Amino acid sequence: MKTADKFKSKEGVVGVVGLGYVGLPLVLAYANAGFRAIGFDIDPSKAEALLAGRSYIKHIPNEQVAAAKASGKLDATTDFARVAECDALILCVPTPLDAHFEPDLSYVVGTIESIVPHLHPGQIISLESTTYPGTTDEELVTRLEAAGLTAGESVFVVYSPEREDPGNAQFAATNIPKVVGGVTPACLEAGVALYEAAFDKIVPVSSCKVAELTKLLENIYRAVNIGLVNELKVAADRMDIDIWEVIRAASTKPFGFNAFYPGPGLGGHCIPIDPFYLTWKAREYGVHTRFIELAGEVNRGMPDYVIHRTMEALNERGKSVKGSRILLMGLAYKPNVDDMRESPTFALMDGFKRLGAEITYHDPHVPVVGPTREHMDWAGMESLPWTEENLRVQDCVVIATKHDAFNLEELAAWSDLIVDTRNAMAETQTREGLVVKA
Is pTM, for the whole model, over 0.85? Predict the structure, then answer.
């Protein structure tokens, strides 16, 4: 049977490699669509959780996993030899930056090398990890060819950028349009068949490079506009203008304006990282992407700005940062999720600690700091319980993320100083001088 036909008839077996915030929704989507779906991960705890019908990501309920497991369609394993059972493999592994802000493709390369010995003719291999244009051809296809497999003939290679938005109730994995690019026309045909079996709308493009750059453009657009509004926030503060009021007023224009909001820095796996994948690759072609790099510089500087504003606010109260008790509210990088990846709160914690402050955090979505690549020093730290006693002993509370679960009325009543980076206190009655925007 032709590979594409296996997905039209729901006979194909789908393997998803990497069971994080992208991979878990994806493997569940295929199981729910009636396919036998196998999740692969090097972390045995993830495979064990799925086999037990449990979710390890807060915004994905246990019931979804349990239902998929009970249907007999969901499986999970750490055994990469089982790649041979699959008709399609979708790779959803991290693509971080190294210490020099250059792409770190070690997870992609390691995954490819792990699956290559178990591949067989007729399979579809799709890369979803965000990366620079050319990665699929340069890293994936070359290794497949070295193993004797030919893209478009013996195997079908595509790139389809992930578009997950953790915690967004309006958009789940399957109702977000899916961009797909193939190495050859035959690859594209197979990739479209794979994804249209589970996704509502497919957007085919002419090559993997186009699909790779599409993903970068989406997140560079956000990074640049957030950088712009962050820079305006600093200027507005100096002029004693409320940037949030300015944004509200500008948003009334029915055309030509999209609202972006300032904050303490960028978080998540995509927006802080993706622009640097393009700037790095562009240098290979003699192009210096100054605009993008400037936005990155502004956004990376926001934690320092928040720390400086906090220092000023403490100084006005006759206190220094050194020895002050500072509570960070919100460890997740965005509201109402448990996703800590690239959270600017870590940069704030690191900065205040260097200045000698006593640091705690409160986040109902992140009860304990898990292991991270860049902030291992904080692993194991527990969220401070929300009590009046714990709040009243703080010299300053910094709101880094605005979770709906936060009780802002109690925060206002129990705190001596609030540094608000998210305009979270705008609708809460506060006494004069309590809140400093940053």
Answer: yes
User: What is the model's pLDDT at position 354?
Assistant: 96
Q: What is the model's pLDDT at position 2? A: 80
Pick the catalytic residue from 86, 187, 208, 270. Answer: 270
Query: Based on the number of CB atoms within 10 Å of its own CB, is 7 exposed (0-12), middle (13-18) or buried (19 or more)?
Result: buried
CB 413 within 8 A of CB 434: no
Where b means 16+ CB within 10 Å and e means fewer, 287-323 reads eebeebbebbebbbebbebbbebbbebbeeeebebee
Q: Please check whether the two domains, 3-206 and 302-437, share a CATH topology.
A: yes
Amino acid (one-letter) located at 22: V
Separation of alpha carbons 66 and 365, rounded Å: 21
- Residue ranges for the chain with pLDDT beneath 70: 1, 268-270
- For the domain 3-206, what is the CATH superfamily, name and number? NAD(P)-binding Rossmann-like Domain (3.40.50.720)
Annotated active-site residue 270? The verdict is yes
CATH architecture of 216-298: Orthogonal Bundle (1.10)
Residue 306: per-residue pLDDT? 98
Residue 62 tokens, joined: 């246990």
Rounded Cα gap, residues 39 and 16, in angstroms: 5
